[in-house]
Design goal:
With about 270 residues, the protein is of the alpha/beta class. It has twelve helices and five strands. Helix 7 (about 115-130) runs parallel beside helix 9 (about 170-190).
């Protein structure tokens, strides 16, 4: 084992991977005591697991801006800085402010399967750069379709886009595109990736189809391993029975509290 005075660069990801958890924790304690300035470097290098990552929250906004500049939209003269300010959550602390950022850039990707596939691939690349060895990525395929229902869900909430940008497509095609991007990333970067399908509580009409998609794609590479309900629990009573059907599918259904003060009691626990 390295001495506490050794350079932290000698504690690489492989060394941590071969050590047990207690040894890793002991090295972290040593780092804090002897080299606190290198703790960040150490944490970046150790292998990590990251679960429930929002795919649309992990998009490459530099690439989205390139796509935005080629599309027929309102405010097409937005500078890069103005666009990024509308689409990034940095410095915004309320849930409403953060959701609005998503609403500003979602029309760019809705119905655009090539963009979705590339964003999925780039997500895996960035996870590899952070030494993530296993990750689960979460999204709503219906929200990405570009179909009338998905577009109307956000069209009243943003002033960037004047009309539907992508072509209409199916939730299955969205999942295919994202899965292809994730698989390509897995092969190239060595990160193990699985998926979580997200239901939207305000759109209970999407729930059964989301469960169908999840049940059909439980196996294989980049499998769907869970279902989530998002965007607040105000309408959760409309989808709870469908969510509970996940038991028979042996999927994990995560119902999260905290987004609404009127959440049902079942929203206060995770259902396994």
């Amino acid at each position: 084992m390295n001495d506490t005075n050794d350079d932290m660069s000698s504690i690489d990801a492989k060394g941590c991977k071969d050590s047990n958890l207690n040894e890793i924790l002991r090295r972290i304690e040593q780092c804090i005591e002897s080299s606190p300035d290198k703790l960040d470097e150490f944490v970046r290098q150790i292998p990590k697991i990251e679960l429930h990552v929002h795919l649309d929250g992990a998009f490459d906004h530099e690439y989205l801006y390139e796509c935005y500049c080629t599309m027929t939209v309102k405010d097409s003269n937005l500078s890069k800085a103005e666009f990024l300010n509308r689409c990034q959550c940095r410095g915004k602390y309320s849930l409403g402010e953060m959701i609005q950022c998503f609403e500003n850039f979602l029309p760019i990707v809705q119905g655009n399967l090539d963009i979705l596939q590339r964003e999925a691939y780039e997500f895996v690349r960035r996870q590899a750069e952070q030494h993530i060895v296993y990750t689960e990525v979460r999204y709503s395929p219906h929200l990405f379709t570009g179909n009338r229902g998905s577009y109307e869900y956000i069209e009243e909430r943003t002033d960037i886009h004047s009309k539907r940008i992508g072509t209409e497509t199916s939730p299955d095609a969205v999942v295919d595109a994202i899965t292809n991007g994730l698989i390509r990333g897995e092969k190239e970067f060595g990160v193990k990736v699985n998926q979580i399908i997200c239901c939207i509580s305000g759109r209970p009409d999407w729930t059964k189809d989301s469960i169908r998609i999840a049940s059909e794609r439980r196996n294989g590479r980049c499998a769907i391993v869970g279902i989530d309900i998002a965007a607040g629990e105000d309408h959760l009573d409309k989808v709870t029975s469908d969510s509970l059907n996940c038991f028979s599918l042996k999927l994990i259904s995560n119902v999260f509290e905290g987004k609404s003060s009127r959440a049902l009691p079942c929203a206060r626990t995770r259902i396994f």
